[in-house]
């Protein structure tokens, strides 16, 4: 049995600014997407069989040429993404083979430096029987819920809060069922499983698995890369 990795990379990255779609922005001379592919391949215990990458419509051929040298023996499938992240994941999921896959990872292209051990931890937990698995890290800020007028509603106990990363791992049938249900307002795939009443398992994530969102994140990404290259 093998793993399929869906990479939603169809976002325009408006908060990051710049001309190119976010996944094609470069760190250390290579795109975030290439770094993400390389990171997934480094997780050898995941037994990756295929990548399904959702890209901005119209960029399919260019992205295929860009990624081909990095996919190696792993099959590379490219699909035009949708309006929202969940649309992109659903469209990619349609290309995941029906047979021979026991784990589907969904991994944001915008998280280029996830350590291999985090990826392997997620896959191992799915293979051990957890139908939905997410990597998490503790939150360091105090988090408050606020209303539309900007008034604080309450302050959840910080020791019960975590920040969620990717790759998230799923038993394939569950992920298909989750995406056939109500996807409105979902900001990750685990949330769709929660809506089905499925227990979502957490595993330890990593600070290196942060998401490149704003321009300053590119500076952090450059410094992580420099550290890794020394
Ligand atoms: O915008 P955000 O940073 O939350 O996006 C997370 C990931 O989802 C990024 O890798 C982005 O390219 C992807 N995405 C997508 N399709 C969209 C919007 C975002 O594949 N319509």
UniProtKB/TrEMBL annotation:
Catalytic activity: 2-C-methyl-D-erythritol 4-phosphate + CTP + H(+) = 4-CDP-2-C-methyl-D-erythritol + diphosphate
Family annotation (InterPro entries): IspD, IspD/TarI, IspD/TarI_cytidylyltransf_bact, ISPD_synthase_CS, Nucleotide-diphossugar_trans
UniProt site positions, description: Positions MEP for the nucleophilic attack: 158, 211
Molecular-function annotations in GO: nucleotidyltransferase activity
Pfam families reported for this sequence: IspD (PF01128)
Site (Transition state stabilizer): 15, 22
Annotated family: Belongs to the IspD/TarI cytidylyltransferase family. IspD subfamily.
Protein name stated in the entry: 2-C-methyl-D-erythritol 4-phosphate cytidylyltransferase
Taxon lineage: Bacteria, Bacillati, Actinomycetota, Actinomycetes, Propionibacteriales
Underlying gene: ispD
């Amino acid at each position: 049995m093998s793993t399929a990795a869906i990479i939603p990379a169809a976002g325009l990255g408006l908060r990051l600014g710049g001309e190119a779609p976010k996944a094609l922005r470069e760190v250390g001379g290579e795109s975030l997407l290439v770094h993400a592919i390389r990171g997934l391949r480094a997780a050898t215990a995941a037994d990756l069989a295929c990548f399904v990458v959702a890209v901005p419509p119209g960029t399919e051929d260019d992205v295929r040429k860009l990624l081909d040298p990095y996919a190696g023996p792993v099959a590379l499938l490219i699909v035009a993404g949708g309006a929202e992240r969940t649309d992109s994941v659903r469209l990619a999921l349609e290309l995941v083979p029906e047979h021979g896959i026991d784990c589907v990872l969904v991994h944001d292209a915008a998280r280029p430096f996830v350590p291999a051990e985090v990826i392997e931890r997620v896959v191992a937990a799915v293979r051990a029987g957890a139908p939905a698995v997410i990597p998490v890290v503790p939150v360091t800020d105090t988090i408050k819920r606020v209303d539309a007028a900007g008034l604080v509603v309450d302050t959840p106990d910080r020791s019960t809060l975590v920040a969620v990363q990717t790759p998230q791992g799923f038993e394939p049938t569950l992920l298909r069922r989750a995406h056939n249900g109500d996807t409105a307002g979902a900001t990750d795939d685990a949330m769709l499983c929660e809506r089905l009443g499925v227990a979502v398992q957490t595993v330890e994530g990593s600070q290196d698995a942060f998401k490149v969102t704003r321009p300053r994140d590119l500076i952090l990404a450059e410094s992580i890369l420099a550290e890794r290259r020394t």
